[in-house]
Every structure is written in C-alpha cells, then in structure tokens.
Design a protein that fits this description.
Helix content: 40-55%
Shape: globular
Number of helices: 14
CATH class of the largest domain: Alpha Beta
GO molecular function: LPPG:FO 2-phospho-L-lactate transferase activity
Subcellular location: Cytoplasm
Main location: cytoplasm
Number of domains: 2
Strand order of the largest sheet: 3-2-1-7-8-9-10
Strand content: 15-25%
CATH topology of the largest domain: Rossmann fold
Function: Required for morphogenesis under gluconeogenic growth conditions.
Keywords: Cytoplasm
Oligomer: single chain
C-alpha cells in the first residue's frame, strides 16, 4: 500500500474508557500515526451531567483517549495530569475533570466536537488523533432478562450506567437514535489504517456499539487493514457477569454477523488449556480468525500490560510495522 511505502504505519483503535486507554498505550509504542475512535454513549458522572446540561457528546472517554496519546513526561505529562484532575468540594464543579470542561467549552466555541478534539491534540502535544464514533450523543438500550420473577421475561433498560449495573443478564443492545450517523473522519481513519484494533473494554457499552453504527461497520468490513480483536481479561460485574470468553465472542457475532477479523488476542492465563480453549477456537472461527494466546495482563491484576500487548500486536502484523525510528515510544 502507498501509505506503507511512505514509511508510516497507521493504526485505528476502537473502544472506550479504560479498555481503549490500554490499547492506545500499547499502539502508541508502534507508531505516532494513531487514531482513537471513541464511543459516545456515556451518561454517568461528569459526562452525564455535561451532556444533560449542555447537550454535548459525553467528553469523558474522549478525554481519556487524549491523555493516553499524550507523552507522560515533561510539560506534556504535567498537562496530562491537569486534564485528568477532578475538582473536589461540594459545589457545581465537584467531580468534573478539567479536561471534560475544556472539551465541552471548546466544542461550544468552535461549534464542532471534532475541531475541538483536534485543537486539544495540538495544544497538549498528543501524538495521533481522537475522534468520536458519532458527532451526536447516543444512548444504549438493552434487552435484559432475569430482572422479573419470571426469568423468561425480557425488560428493556436505557442508559450506559443502567446497562453496566443491571442485576439481570444483558441479551442484546441497540443504539438510540437507531442507525446513528458515523463521524466521517473516523470512517476515513478506519479505511486508511494498516491495523484496526477493537477492544478490550465494557463489552456491551464500549465494544459492541462500534458495530452498531452502519457506516462504521461498513468501513470495518471494507478496510484492507489487519483487524485485531482484543478480549477482556475477565467478565465485568453487572454487564457481563458470568460470561465465558467464548460467550463474549458469541454476543459480538450476534450483533455483527458479517464481521470478520484476522486475529483475536486472548490472555493465556485467563483461558486454561482444555475444553475452554477448544470452545474459544470454535467461536473465533465465526470471525474467520484463530485466537492468539499470550500473557498480556499486568500480573495480579485485570489490566492489560501496554508493553506486552504492543509486543503481541507487532508480532501479529510482522514486517508491516516500521522500525522504532518511525515513531514508536
């Protein structure tokens, strides 16, 4: 491809929250040409307050992605800390991170959330680009069983916080508005990428929403990029409590039956040898992929190790990744 001939290796990383933060911390070690594509359905905490009061896309996950792409030393490191700083006290500002307020303010001044994000990237020295998957705030609606006395009854619940904390079992999610518009720049980043990484993250609220935006799913299907799905290290309380690793793949394939990926990265310690791995291999076949088992967790935690994950991703794409002199850090 022409972009590889030019010596630039482009990555598009899709997700939200702490999962996307981990992916970005890994892929920035491979190249400075990284685009984060971020979910915009958060309705809790500071993000929920700002979207309700100002009718803006929720800024929290976007802020975290921006910080993940910002150098962690010198002045840039100091500003990254400032962006993450939450105001204390009990007043109107209590709990708001500085970066959320800056992003919301810039979006009002510039009249465009993408322009606001690009301005923050330039101002704070981030390497790469941060984009919303849609320029309008979205809601998640889930079909959940196990809430009523009759376990067969399905109830619909709305909102990311409600989905993440439900005591029931999430069966399916959708976005509201239905068939939301994609961010054109995000679609373009997926199409020009050499590597697209989806996950890890909250499965129903940070990963699956990316395949529910029709134009973005079309781009994921059409891109020539190597596509890698990174699985979570453990089920999440509430949202995916009791889910096996194989179940995570099953529900993703239900929401995007035509999606194909090249590789699925699985933490070796989270899926032992034997029947569990055999079931996972069969589930991966739905995506046309074989799983790669590797130790990618920080020992003793359920957090991905950015350096270990970067090494696995580099091995998967092989000679396509330019040398360290081309920008990895």
């Amino acid at each position: 491809m022409a972009r590889r001939a030019a010596g630039r290796f482009a990555v598009a990383a899709l997700g939200g929250g702490h999962g996307l933060f981990a992916t970005l911390s890994a892929v920035r070690r491979l190249t400075p040409d990284v685009t984060a594509v971020v979910t915009v359905a958060d309705d809790g905490g500071s993000s929920g307050r700002l979207r309700q009061e100002l009718d803006v896309i929720p800024p929290g996950d976007l802020r975290m992605a921006l910080v993940a792409l910002t150098p962690d030393d010198g002045d840039a490191g100091m500003w990254a800390q400032v962006l993450q700083h939450r105001f204390g006290g009990v007043g109107a500002l209590a709990g708001h991170p500085v970066g959320n307020l800056l992003l919301a303010g810039l979006a009002e001044v510039l009249g465009d959330p993408v322009a606001a994000l690009d301005a923050m990237v330039r101002t704070f020295g981030a390497q790469g680009r941060v984009l919303p998957m849609s320029a309008v705030p979205l809601e998640i609606e889930a079909e959940v069983s196990g809430i009523e006395d009759d376990p067969r009854l399905i109830r619909r619940i709305r909102g990311q916080v409600a989905v993440a904390t439900t005591p029931g079992k999430v069966r399916r999610v959708r976005l509201l508005p239905t068939e939301p518009p994609a961010c054109a720049a995000a679609v373009g980043a997926i199409m020009r990428a050499d590597l697209v990484v989806l996950g890890p993250g909250s499965w129903f609220s940070s990963v699956i929403p990316h395949v529910l935006v029709p134009e973005q799913l079309q781009a994921l299907t059409a891109t020539d990029a190597r596509k890698v799905l990174v699985l979570n290290l453990a089920p999440e309380p509430g949202e995916t409590a009791g889910f096996s690793t194989e179940r995570h793949l099953h529900v993703l394939s239900q929401h995007a039956p035509g999606l194909r990926v090249d590789h699925i990265v699985v933490d070796a310690a989270s899926v032992p040898d034997g029947a569990d791995r055999e079931q996972l291999v069969r589930a991966a076949d739905r995506f046309g992929a074989s799983p790669t088992f590797a130790r990618v967790a920080i020992p003793g935690t359920h957090q991905h190790d950015p350096e270990a994950l970067a090494g696995v991703l580099k091995d998967l794409v092989g000679q396509d990744v330019p040398g360290q002199e081309d920008g990895g850090r």
